[in-house]
Amino acid sequence: MSSSTADDLQIPGSPHESEPHVERRSERIKLRRGLTYLGMTLVVPGSAHLASGHRRIGRLAMAVWSGVWLLVLALCVVALLSRGTAVALLTYGPTLRVVQVGLVVLGVAWGALLLDAWRLSRPPELARRHRVGFALLNLAVVGGVVGGLLSSASIVSGQRDLMATVFAGGGEAATTNGRVNILLLGGDAGKGRVGLRPDSLTVASVDADTGRTVLFSLPRNLEKAPFPPSSPMHQKFPRGFRCPDHACMLNAVYTYAASHKELYPGVKDPGARATAEAVEGITGLKINYYVLVDLKGFEALVDAVGGINLDISRRVPIGGGTSKIYGWVEAGRNVHLDGHHALWYARSRASDSDYARIARQKCVMSAMLNQLDPVTVLTKFNRIAAAGKEILVTNIPTGDVNTMLELAMKAKSKPMASLAFVPPLIKPGDPKFGLIHQKVQAKIAAAEAADLAKAAPPSPTASAGPSSPGPGAQAKARANARAKASAKARSAQETDDLENVCSAR
After folding, report:
1. Is the per-residue pLDDT at 339 higher than 70?
2. In angstroms, rounded to a whole number, what is the distance separating the alpha carbons of residues 111 and 463?
3. Residues ≥6 apart with Cβ < 8 Å to 233
4. Would you call the peptide bond into 424 cis, given omega within 30 degrees of 0 as the criterion?
5. What is the pTM of this model?
């Protein structure tokens, strides 16, 4: 081979290769080695140590890494075969504690391996211009991995605290006539008030199979609430919760029972239990669970999910009553409300009756149900969990969380019917409980009929060809038109779809 050919090819190691070229090539090799070790440790912790001859550390790290993936795979298989079992595992306190500690240990150990991968790359041998950049890259990777795992541990900690604080248990999972009935209470232990009063009382009756939900709203000033014979309050008030000065309203049941705890020995929240029993007597429905949410907890929850959007037909005052009006929730379509404004939209009664407020509260509940999605729950879990701790009490046990999640997902896909027991349907001072029971059953029957009609195959119709409608058909058409107009004009107190109520029109 001629000398000119050797010069052209610049064979490595030949006497013709220039020294700067050899040095640059060596620098690139060392940088690639460092980046390779870093990438290997990031993808499969321990693999870089194994490749560099540190077999003991490498094998241990890879064994732990394989074990982690086997556990994740096992959980995925369990979730596919039995989601309820997976949810039960992930809501069980000791399991969450183990996961939390495991994530912290994994994060610290993984970070240490990444730093050691930087050591294995022999940074003093790197070119000066590569050292700082490589060190910063390594620190960024360590920060991302360790920070991500510690953040995950924080989410798990929030989940564990939420389960321990909120889901105390005590409710009854058994359905009645295929339905789960949940009492939703909005509590207000505001300044100057004696005890807590649940001023918002709504029963969500959910079909356990389809998820179709009917909301029954009860006014806080309803009197003479009857208690089931098994209730301790029935012994004290056999003729219903009544008193001569008309102060014995439905929202006062909580305060009375809370101040007479001897009636409910061993019960965590006698007020909530007694209120649930009163609602059972009023509606004729067996209450499976109750959830009592403080107003401040509601405000924090709305903020935690990033606010809600509502159609608002007319402006609602902020303040009023014993204080001055200092602001407004303005009317409009698709108005975005933070927690403060959503709370006042739901609770304000300065220029409205209690009954108009009930309709607004149903709109807020409907918006929360429809706009809360899994991505929001995941990305804002810690804030949601912190707000959830402000729920004063619920008797939903952790074992039933999966059932509640499934019902919520089913309910989200269907229109939500509602019925408010307000004038002129009833007189809060002298309600007819037999009528309330009839209305409740009729509303539930209508909701179940809607599911049956949807599931039934269409009936065949004979094709008779075009013909002129006779007098009977014309009368029927006019009657149908009147019925449709009447349905369209139906008030917010009774509707088969809350979207009809919660719209700016």
Report:
1. yes
2. 75
3. 227, 241, 253, 257, 263, 274, 277, 278
4. yes
5. 0.64
